[in-house]
From TrEMBL:
Name of protein: Alpha-L-arabinofuranosidase 1 catalytic domain-containing protein
UniProt domain Alpha-L-arabinofuranosidase 1 catalytic: residue ranges: 240-356
Cited InterPro entries: ASD1_cat, GH
Any single Pfam family the record assigns to this protein: ASD1_dom
Domain of life: Bacteria
PANTHER family the UniProt entry points to: ALPHA-L-ARABINOFURANOSIDASE C, ALPHA-L-ARABINOFURANOSIDASE C-RELATED
Amino acid sequence: MKYRNQILNICILLLVINFTSCIHEKVTQKIIAKINIENTREPISKYIYGMFLENLGNEDVGNIVDDGLWAELLDDRKFFYAVDDKDELIPINRKEKINQWKPVGYSKDILMDSLDSYVGKHSPKIMLNSKKETGILQSGIAVKATKNYTGRIILKGTPNVDVTVSFIFGDDSEDRETITFKNVSPDYTKYDFSFNSKKENPDATLKITAKGEGSFKIGAVSLMPADNIDGFRPDVLALLKDLNSGIYRWGGNFISGYDWRDGVGNPDKRAPRYEYAWKCLEDNDVGTEEMIRFAELINVELSMTVNTGFGDAFSAAQWVEYVNGSTETPMGKLREKNGHAEPYNIKLWCVGNESYGWWQLGTKFL
C-alpha cells in the first residue's frame, strides 16, 4: 500500500508538471485578431448608457442638491425652519449636513411672521435694538480663495432702516466684505450683491443685520459662485458631459410625494416643503425648467417621472401638458407665463419610481 501511494503521488506530480507546461506554451503563443470594419451592424442605442437623478437624499444616497451639481451655497434659503438658538430641527432633517440660520443679538428679537410671509409658512422679522446689531447669520459655507460670489436678498422694512449683508471668509478683521442697502423698501424687493473671497474657508459666514429703530423682514436669500451656469456648477457639468451619456432619468424616491407645481415659476416664490420620502427639506429650487435646462447643458435626453405614489393621473397629465402642450392649453399658458412659450417636447416619461417598495410613499404593495 505504501509503494502504491508513492507511485500515485509521482503520477499526479508528473500530470501537474505536464499541464503547467501546456498552459505556459499556450500563453506564450501570439494571438492574432482581425476586424472587418466593413461588416457593420445597427449602432448601439444611446439609451443603453445613462444616469438616474434624485433631487434629495441623505448620508447614504447622492443627490443633485447636496452633492455638488447645484451651486446654491445656502441651506434653507427660504426659511422653512424657524431662526432660533436650538440645534434640533423639527421636523427632523436627515440630510448629511444642513447649516441653520442663527440669531445675531437677542433671539427674542427674531420673530417668524406667518401673517406677512414672502413665501412658505413664515418669514423672519427682525425687531431692531437701537443699542446693538440685530439680525441673522448662517455659517458652514465652503468658499474658495480669489473666487467671486453673487447673491440676492428679498427685503422689506420700516422707514429709514438700512440693512447690511456681510460676507465673512476668515478670522481676521479684514477677512470680510459688506454691502449696505439704504432705506429698504416697505414692500418685498429684491436686492443683488456680490463678494470676493480672499481666502479658502470651509466655514465662511453670511450675516444679515441692521441697527437703529424699527424692523425688517427677509423673504429669501441666495448665494452662488459667480461662474454658475443657470444655477449649476460648470466644473461638474463638464465632467458629466464628458461621460457622453445618452439619457438621464429624473425622479427617484422623492417623486412619490412630489407636486410638480411646487417646482415651476420664480424660484424665490417656490415654497419650501418637507419631503417625507427622504425626511428632509425640499427647497424646490431644482424643478422642471432647471432639469430640462441641465439636460440641454450636458447634451442628454431627459426622461421625466410622474408621481404614482401620492400623485394621481390628473396631476400627471397636467405636468405633461405643462411641458409639452401648446400655449392654447391651460398648462401651456402657465409655462408661457413662466417665461417659456415653446413646448419642451420631452418624449420619454416614466410612470412612477419603484412603486413596489415599502420606502416609497403610497406604495402599491403594502
